[in-house]
Design brief:
Blueprint (H helix, E strand, L loop, with lengths): L2 H17 L4 E7 L5 E9 L2 E10 L7 H19 L3 E5 L7 H20 L3 E5 L1 H8 L7 H11 L8 H29 L1
Parallel strand pairs: 1-4, 4-5
Antiparallel strand pairs: 1-2, 2-3
Helix pairs in contact: 1-6, 2-3, 4-6, 5-6
Length: about 190
């Protein structure tokens, strides 16, 4: 996708946001090399509706390149199946092991690339902002996040922590998308 199409897509999404009342389908991703959680919601104003969630789990016996390929292909399938308008992904947190951080970065890249190739804007959110947006505390634990997803998204079981985290990323984006959309055209023009 070239810069002109990115600008047109961002302006179109911004126009849709101004009209109000339009449903926006959001794919949330919580990337990991062993478990990549995903969740799909629809947002219409302040109303959120649960669509689906799950986890992509590449075989740990595969090489790094093969696991990354599995992540990319599976997220591509999610994009084709659920046709999201926007995507949100959790940003990498830096942990004590630089090798683990680097591998997580690889997983994020594979997951981000699939919606980007489809021309879908991908927004990134820090883990603490996601937790603060959905639970009210930036250091909430996974049990609290899952419980809040069941409250905010009726019909959602949030039985898997990775899927619940991905839904939380999507909800966070739904709450912050007005700001993201406001600045999207400026970023795309650069």
């Amino acid at each position: 996708m070239n810069e002109t199409s990115a600008v047109k897509r961002a302006l179109s999404a911004q126009s849709a946001l101004k009209v109000g009342g339009l449903k926006v389908r959001i794919l949330g991703l919580d990337p990991g090399l062993r478990h990549t959680g995903w969740g799909v919601i629809e947002a219409e104003g302040n109303r959120l509706v649960f669509i689906a969630d799950g986890v992509v789990e590449p075989d740990p016996k595969l090489s790094l390149a093969e696991r990354l390929q599995v992540l990319f292909v599976e997220v591509q399938k999610l994009v084709a199946t659920y046709v999201p308008h926007e995507c949100a992904i959790e940003d990498t947190f830096v942990n004590k092991n630089p090798t683990s951080t680097l591998k997580l970065g690889h997983a994020r890249a594979a997951a981000m690339l699939a919606p980007a190739v489809a021309g879908i804007m991908v927004s990134e959110y820090k883990p603490n902002l996601v937790k603060k947006s959905v639970v009210g505390a930036g250091h909430a634990d996974k049990v609290q996040v899952a419980a809040m997803m069941r409250i905010l998204l009726p019909g959602c079981k949030a039985g898997n922590a990775d899927a619940a985290d991905a839904l939380a990323v999507a909800v966070c984006h739904a709450h912050h998308r007005a700001s993201v959309m406001r600045f999207a055209p400026m970023k795309a023009v650069k």
